[in-house]
């Protein structure tokens, strides 16, 4: 009989990258390199309120499953907002923090969370995480795959839905081919936006992999911090993290650099898998009208077309993405709440939220930027 054990680690330093990545299904954010960079540079740590408690399922000494778990003392950096639940818990005299979260920190991207080769091992991971969470208020599975969400809800967890905007490649030959599928008005607006950026003297470059040198990272990190500062927030990541992923996963990185007369003005960072491009971080040192759309969306769409990628994920939120060819897509989270009274209140909240979300998605469909096909007689 195979010998199995589940253990908890606070670092991936002694975990084989090859064994981990074999379970991560090619998702760059679930990769050993990305998660290790977050942990080892201190971005996700007890100091920042993300204390790692990764579950490892080992069978005969080899890694058979893994789950990125964090004990959390706040709800920042999750992109699935449960502030109201924490307030309700406090109102009822319950302690909500710390809670247990299964997620990739600061990354609202759907991907594997129960890293295993089959459902039986995923179920073992979920059961072990639940046992770990019983001493806390709750356990939250954020941006899992639909199959993982279904596994959790089959065990009685609350399923929550949200919406992002993704661009889907319909086999476009180039950017003009994509524009040709849009309504005349949207096509005209996008061309005007791109032209205005060019007329402002801005030129765009896309750098990949080893082309991204330390000066590029230093400029990008400056832009990234400025974006958060403009919102009155502290940035989650720092230069050491960006340098680290630049070394360990360069083949997955694309940096868009906006320049005028050779001087950098703005930058946007994308990560790429075998079938998708993910827009992640952006910032600028000078406010140029419409440059955000060019760097974050149009450059991403062009890249996805050139690489024949199936989709481009533009990040969390933002109805303005709809008018630039990105369509609403459902994202999921699943939640286990220890206190039965709070669990019923959360389930009621999610049910009411779901009805509002359905109306919202229906309204979005009425504003599609794509040409309407003629109705056959």
Protein architecture, described:
- 37% of the residues lie in helices and 26% in strands.
- The protein is α+β, with helices and mostly antiparallel strands and 377 residues long.
- The longest helix has 26 residues, at 340-365.
- It starts with a strand and ends in a 12-residue tail after the last helix.
Secondary structure layout plus pairing:
Elements: E1 4-9, H1 17-23, H2 32-40, E2 50-52, E3 54-59, E4 62-67, E5 69-72, H3 83-91, E6 99-102, E7 115-116, H4 119-133, E8 138-142, H5 146-154, E9 158-168, H6 175-180, H7 184-199, E10 202-208, H8 214-230, H9 239-248, E11 253-260, E12 263-272, E13 276-284, H10 291-306, E14 311-316, E15 327-337, H11 340-365
Parallel strand pairs: 6-8, 13-14
Antiparallel strand pairs: 1-3, 2-5, 3-4, 4-7, 5-6, 8-15, 9-14, 9-15, 10-11, 11-12, 12-13
Helix pairs in contact: 2-9, 8-9
């Amino acid at each position: 009989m195979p010998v199995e054990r589940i253990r908890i680690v606070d670092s991936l330093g002694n975990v084989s990258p090859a064994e981990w990545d074999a379970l991560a299904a090619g998702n760059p954010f679930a990769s050993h390199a990305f998660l290790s960079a977050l942990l080892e540079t201190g971005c996700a740590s007890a100091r920042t309120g993300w204390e790692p408690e990764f579950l490892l399922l080992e069978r005969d000494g080899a890694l058979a499953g893994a789950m990125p778990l964090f004990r959390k003392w706040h709800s920042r950096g999750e992109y699935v907002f449960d502030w109201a639940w924490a307030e309700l818990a406090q109102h009822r005299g319950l302690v909500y923090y710390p809670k247990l979260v299964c997620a990739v920190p600061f990354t609202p991207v759907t991907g594997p969370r129960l890293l295993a080769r089959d459902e039986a091992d995923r179920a073992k991971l979920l059961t072990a995480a639940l046992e770990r969470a019983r001493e806390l208020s709750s356990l939250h599975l954020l941006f899992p795959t639909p199959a993982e969400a279904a596994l959790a809800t089959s065990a009685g967890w609350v399923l929550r839905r949200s919406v992002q905007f993704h661009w889907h490649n319909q086999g476009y030959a180039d950017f003009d081919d994509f524009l040709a599928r849009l309504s005349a008005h949207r096509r005209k607006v996008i061309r005007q936006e791109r032209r205005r950026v060019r007329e402002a003297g801005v030129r765009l470059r896309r750098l990949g992999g080893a082309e991204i040198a330390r000066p590029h990272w230093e400029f990008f990190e400056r832009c990234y911090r400025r974006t958060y500062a403009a919102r009155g927030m502290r940035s989650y990541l720092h230069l050491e993290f960006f340098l680290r992923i630049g070394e360990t996963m360069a083949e997955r990185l694309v940096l868009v650099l906006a320049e005028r007369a050779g001087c950098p003005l703005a930058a946007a960072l994308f990560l790429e898998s075998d079938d998708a491009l993910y827009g992640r971080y952006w910032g600028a040192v000078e406010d140029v009208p419409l440059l955000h759309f060019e760097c974050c969306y149009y450059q991403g769409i062009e890249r996805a077309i050139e690489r024949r990628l199936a989709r481009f994920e533009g990040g969390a939120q933002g109805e303005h993405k709809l008018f630039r060819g990105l369509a609403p897509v459902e994202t999921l989270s699943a939640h286990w709440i220890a206190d039965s009274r709070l669990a019923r209140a959360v389930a009621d909240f999610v049910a009411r939220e779901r009805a509002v979300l359905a109306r919202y998605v229906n309204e979005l469909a009425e504003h599609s930027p794509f040409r309407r096909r003629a109705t056959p007689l």
